[in-house]
Each structure stands twice: as C-alpha cells, then as structure tokens.
Amino acid sequence: MRASLACALFVMACDAPQVAFNDAGFAVFDAADATLVATGNACGTNDQGEPIGGCSAGQFCISPDEGFPNGYCAPDCRAAPCAEGDVCFPSSAQHHYCLRGCERDGDCRQREGYVCRAWRPGARPACVPNEEPIGRRDDGRACFATEGDGSVGPFLAPLPTGRFARAASLTRGRFEAMGEAEVSLAVDATGNAVVAFMGVDNRGLYWRGGVARVAPDGAVGAVTVLHDFDYPDTLAPGVAFDRAGRLHLVYVANHEDRPGNFLRHAVSLDGGVTFDRARSAFADVVCGLNCSSPMIAAGPDGDGDAVYVAAIAGQRDGTGALQVARMAADGSAFDPHSTLARLEVTSNARRAPGIASLAAGPARGAVYAAWVDRNVSHALSALGDRVNRVRLRASTDGARTWGDVEEVSRPEDAPVGHVPWVGAGGGVLHVAYVTGGLTGAWDVVLATRRDGDTQWQHRVVNDDPARCATHAFAGLSVDAVTGAGSVLWLDNRYGAGVVAFARCAADATVRCTRNEAVSDEGFVFTTARDPLRWHGTRSALARGPDGTLWGAWSDTRTGGPGVYAARALMR
After folding, report:
1. Between the CA of residue 46 and those of 25, 42, 409, 544, what are the distances in Å?
2. Model confidence at 33, in pLDDT bands (50, 70, 90)?
3. What is the C-alpha to C-alpha distance for residues 106 and 272, in angstroms, rounded to an integer?
4. Residue-wise pLDDT tens digits, 268-325
5. Are residues 181 and 74 in the same domain?
6. How far apart are CA 136 and CA 256, in angstroms?
7. 523 falls within a domain
8. Given 70, 103, 129, which residue is the final one in a domain?
9. What angle (nearest 5°) sits at the alpha carbon of residue 434, between those of residues 212 and 199?
10. Is residue 89 in a domain?
C-alpha cells in the first residue's frame, strides 16, 4: 500500500450526480449531501468521465490520481473514530482515513482492483488498492491445474517442451546484486547472445547495469559491470549489433545528488567485453527532469547502418515526452532529436508516453517506435487502464521524418505499462503488447499490419481457454524473411510462474501456435515493483544474422530475481 496520499484538501458541496474531483484529487461533501454512503464506496467519475456518485457528509472522495480506482469514500479518522470494523490508515502526516474493514478479497470491490490486506504487520485488514494484481480465480486458486499435481481443476495440459535448450543462469554468483531484471538482447553473427540487464547492488545503494555473453552451447562468460565515470547509477541498459559487428549500448545515467540524468551511448568492438567511454546521446536539456525507458535499435540506412536511441524525457508538468535521435553507426555524434509523442489532453482523458520500444530494418531507412500512452490521471494505470493506448510511428528515411501516429491497440483493450515490442519483416509489421486491468487477468496480444494497409489485426497469443491468468513481461522477434513473429512471456496459468513461447505466422488470420514452455523451472510469479521480487517490464527475444533465436528474461527461481537465457533448438 502506498504510504503517501499527500494532496491539499479543498471543500466543495455538490449533488451526487454532479460529482467531480478537484485539482488536488479529492472531493469533500457537506451536510447537504445527506445520503448515507458506506466507507469504501466508489465516488467521483469513472475512466470514461461519467459520474459514479458522491460520499456522505464528513467523507473524502479519494481519487484515482492517488491510486484509488473509481474513487473511495473515506472519513477522516482523526476527526472521529472509525465505524466498527473499519481501519484507520495514516496515509500521510496530514491525512488519516478510515478504510473499509474486511476478511477476504470478496468483501472489497475486487473487480475494480481492491483486495483485503493489512496495511502493516499486525494491523487489521482493510480494502486497499491492489498494487500487484495476480490473475486468479475468485476463490484465490490458480486458474488451471495439470493432471496429477494434486490440485483441484479445471485441468489444462502442461505446456510441451523441447524447442529451447536448458536455460543458462547469467547473473547468480556472477553479478554482485540483490536482484536483476529489465533484459535487453542482441545476437552476433556467430550465434553468441549478449544480454544487458540491471540490478540493485548488494549494499542497496545503487542501480548498476551489466552485460553478459552466452555462447551457443550455453557457456556463460564473465559479466561486464557498466561503470560510468560521472554517474553511479546505470539504469536499464539496452544493446544492439550493427551489421559490422559493433555492439551499441544505451542506458540512463543517474546521480541522486544531481538534478536530472542523461541518456548515454557507448560502443564495444569485442562483443560486450569492454566498452569505450560513454557519451550523452541527448543534451541534458532534452532529458529535462528525468530520462527513462531507454531504447536502442540499429539497421540499414543509405550505404551503411545507423543506430537509433530513444527515451521518455521528463517534462515540467510531470509527464514524459518520447524523444528519438539517430547517428551513423560509425559516427561520433547524434543528430538533433525528434519528439514523437507528448502529453495529450482530451475532453475526458490525459495521456502521456510511459514506456516504449524501437526497431529498425529490414528495409533501408525503416525505423519504428511503439509506446504505451498512459492515463496520467490514474496512479495505477500502469496495471492496465481503458484510457491507455498503444501507439506507433514509422519512418522510412532513417528517423529524419516520421509518419502520423497510428492507433495499435483496440478500443476494448486496457494496455499495461510493459514494453510494447515492435518488429518488421516479410512485408508485415508486428507489435506485441500486454492488456488486462486491475484484477491481473492480462493477455499478450500481437497486432499485425501488412505493408500498405492501414488496419491492424489482433491475435491473443496465450492459448489458455479462459481469461483468468496473468500473461505479461513479453518479448518479440520477427523473422526478416517470412514475417513470422516469435513471442516469449511469463505467466501464472498453473499458479507457479512459467516461461512461455509461441510462434505466430505473418498471416494474422492464422492462430498462433500452441504455447510451449521455454524452461521447466517454476518460480514465484509477481507483478510487484519491489526490486527484490520483480521481473521488470519485459522479456526479450532476438535473432542473429544466421537465424539463431535466443530468449532472455528475469525470474525468481532462486528466491530473488535473476536473469536467464535460452537458445532455440528449432526455428
């Protein structure tokens, strides 16, 4: 449960059908609103801007801005004791609220994203927003069981194995960190995989980036720790090979004692063993208050290759703007950046870029950027929101100019704040994204558009027969010749976490193949952002020039998050 609901409170009186939140995110109702409303009831407006209702006199309507889906009626427990059974929750030094007491999740507005939890050890449980939803049945059981595992059905056959070699552990015992995630993957001409990732150092002081090299036989080389001469934090590194074999690296460099941070770029000529001194890809003014979601891609442009970097740059209004810059792969400086997306305000929504991906090629000058525009008026919108959108822009001239924004997601989707991977090949374009909502019932969707078409076609990649489990942390690779898309993701259809894979033909009218297990090692599945448990916001898939396919991901099979990679034995 978040420990801060810090906003100034303003008092306003209104009739229930005319409820609206004020700029501070709260509405307060006086004695004119005499209707008795139970603690924890919905209030204010929903995500479509439609009024839900008001609260009783003396109650505050805590808004989605502060992480309470569809509002939450709550009295101030410092002004008067909570009603019997309710729980006093000190949200901040200034504000203490009565939350609805409960015994089970079903006592709360479960389908709106609330669960029954104690806000601290020893406290009585109350209905609070679920900040790490997991897809389960209403009684808390796993969505499916396999025959012979001792569980109660419904039963679902186990995922077949055999496509991938045994997963190699890249970080356990090789990288002095308490947890590693946020993988990026590139494959060289000889089939070696290079995996970049980040983790919290063992002292809990810094985020550090790392790069590991894995041979086709699964042998793991020494891990390179990324050191920036000026910044202790090296966040979310990404890697890409150009056709000359140069490995390009991008990451966010951060120093907590300095305002803002930088998007940095470096090159390795030995496959990631060593890197030259990093340089800022953007001027510091471009990052503004913050840079996040660093991205990188390399592809053919003119007579050579170009490398493209991007980030979500923080703006003074608290939102982000998607910035992209290009450089010749053998160049020394990036061209001035382009802004592809920024805050969008409509009559009933405020959206801004939250997380993104880049892809280049296989056509000369082809570059694609896909991103999730998040609802900035909902603190939990990264967990899936109907206001969120997955969008795309394309360039045919090496990121010098860009086409119009395309809507990739469907109107009924509630995109999650995980990386929406994009890739092209065989005359088609694919975008893989996660959609769901605050209950954790999330699906991996593959959107496909043929060259020259304007309409996207959509397939759900996971093949379990009911929308129940969480399928997330996806990765995508597209065959440059056939246009088939390969997708890797994590899910909890059987309760324990599983790494899953499917291949989807270029023809979007053909269902994706039966889901397969990449690894037979289970783990504790979570959607938490706690660095000691989290899986990041992505997995990764990449092909080498010879067609060798690798996958990489983070899971908790050893107790804490660690990075793993596996090579596909068949195409």
Report:
1. 13, 9, 20, 47
2. very low
3. 51
4. 999 999 999 999 998 777 887 889 999 999 999 989 999 999 999 998 888 999 999 9
5. no
6. 39
7. yes
8. 129
9. 30
10. yes
* Structure-token pair, residue 358: 């880049």
Question: pLDDT, tens digit, for every residue of 309-320?
Answer: 999 999 888 899
For residue 555, give the 3-state DSSP assignment. strand
Same domain, 65 and 183: no
pLDDT, tens digit, for every residue of 177-211? 889 999 999 999 999 999 999 998 878 778 899 99
**CA 445 to each of CA 65, 122, 125, 347, 496: distance values in angstroms, whole numbers, following the listed order:** 27, 41, 36, 28, 22
Mean pLDDT along residues 71-99? 88
CATH number at residue 259: 2.120.10.10
3 state DSSP class of 32: coil
Structural domain boundaries, residue 529 = 168-202+238-567
Q: Are residues 558 and 511 in the same domain?
A: yes
**385 domain-assigned:** yes
193 and 53 in one domain?
A: no
3-state SS, one letter per residue, for 420-489: CEEEEECCEEEEEEEECCCCCCEEEEEEEEECCCCCCEEEECCCCCCCCCEEEEEEEEECCCCCCEEEEE
What's the pTM? 0.91
The rounded distance, in Å, linking the Cα atoms of 93 and 52 is 29
CA distance 454 to 167: 39
Give the pLDDT confidence of 125-147 residue by residue, as tens digits: 999 999 999 999 988 899 999 88
Residues 49 and 172 in one domain: no
- Which has the closest alpha carbon to 12: 57, 69, 76, 72? 57
What per-residue confidence (pLDDT) applies to 571? 67
86 and 185 belong to one structural domain: no
CA distances for 537 relative to 223, 274, 290, 474, 490, angstroms = 22, 27, 18, 8, 11
**Which H helix or E strand runs over 286?**
helix 284-287
Based on the domain organization, do 118 and 172 belong to the same domain?
no
* C-alpha to C-alpha distance for 412 and 353, rounded to whole angstroms: 19
**Angstrom distances, CA of residue 306 to CA of 123, 194, 450, 527:** 57, 20, 24, 35
Residue 162 lies in a domain: no
Q: Say whether both 362 and 277 belong to one domain.
A: yes
CB 292 within 8 A of CB 253: no
Write the CA distances from 180 to 49, 71, 220, 363, integer angstroms: 39, 35, 16, 34
Q: What is the mean pLDDT of the chain?
A: 89
Q: How would you classify the pairing of strands 549-555 and 126-129?
A: unpaired
> What backbone phi and psi angles, to 5 degrees, belong to 341?
-160, 150
Asked whether the predicted pLDDT for residue 362 surpasses 80, the reply is yes
**Dihedrals φ, ψ of 121, to 5°?**
-55, 130
Contacts of 185 (CB under 8 A, 6+ apart): 193, 194, 195, 196, 239, 475, 540, 541, 542, 550, 551, 552, 565
Half-sphere exposure (Cβ direction) of 170: Cα atoms closer than 13 Å: 34
What is the domain count for the chain? 2
Retrieve residue 509's tokens.
């009218």
Residue at which a domain ends, from 82, 99, 129: 129
N- to C-terminal Cα separation, the chain: 44
> From CA 23, how far away is CA 65, in angstroms rounded?
10
